Amino acid sequence: MRSFLVQPVSLLLLFIAIAAVLTVGSSSVINETCAALKSLQPYDYCVGVLSADPAAAAATDVRGVAAAAVNITAQKAASTLRVINYLADDLNTCRGYYSSILQSLEDSLVHFRDGRFLNASLGIVNATGGPVGCDILLFEGKTQKDPISDENYENGRLVDLADGIVDLFTNKHLV
Ligand SMILES: *[C@@H]1O[C@H](CO)[C@@H](O)[C@H](O)[C@H]1NC(C)=O
Ligand SMILES: *[C@@H]1O[C@H](CO)[C@@H](O)[C@H](O)[C@H]1NC(C)=O
Ligand SMILES: *[C@@H]1O[C@H](CO)[C@@H](O)[C@H](O)[C@H]1NC(C)=O
Ligand SMILES: *[C@@H]1O[C@H](CO)[C@@H](O)[C@H](O)[C@H]1NC(C)=O
Fold first, then answer.
1. Rounded alpha-carbon distances, angstroms, from residue 51 to 8, 35, 108, 133
2. Pocket mutation for ligand 4, best pick of 126, 128, 170 (most atoms within 8 Å of C-beta)
3. Which ligand has the nearest atom to the CA of 108?
4. pTM of this structure
5. pLDDT tens-digit series, residues 74-105
């Protein structure tokens, strides 16, 4: 019974909060500041960015709006820096995956040229998990972005193709 009551009440509070933000959102100082910048900065972008920030919305003069604008920009840079750091960590792990992939493929090629076809085949199999492993790592990581998803996809397809052709040859050769 209680949970049936709590949910509508918290929903109502949420709506009140959103309504408050929307009405308090664009102050006349923000509007005047953005109107003065109109020839340099898109008005809607200016009002939108500043109105979403509590400090800018509460500012009573252009000085306050300016300080808030610098702070908004600093917060964004800090957040982007965090994204870059997470990506750099995950990409560093992928660097290891791809070093192993390359090593396995180069070993495989040597085996293949020297007629050790089973070893060659095993070397390629060893490389199959890497591209998708890197892809999953990045997509399931903190940023959920994969800047090398195209490369992972192409490597995954190629390694499967090479694996299939070497297996085809190896099986026929052994028969
Ligand atoms: C500021 O401008 C917006 C439109 O850009 C308007 O909706 C809002 O009422 C204005 N606010 C004030 C306080 O002038
Ligand atoms: C900058 O913004 C952050 C987050 O909105 C806030 O916590 C901080 O106090 C602000 N700093 C200044 C100097 O206004
Ligand atoms: C080839 O594979 C066999 C069986 O896994 C292994 O014993 C052998 O050492 C491998 N040869 C080379 C040159 O790696
Ligand atoms: C597979 O990869 C592992 C680690 O990279 C390596 O130790 C192993 O020798 C490789 N096996 C083959 C058959 O290439």
1. 28, 14, 60, 42
2. 126
3. 4
4. 0.71
5. 999 999 999 999 999 999 999 999 999 999 99
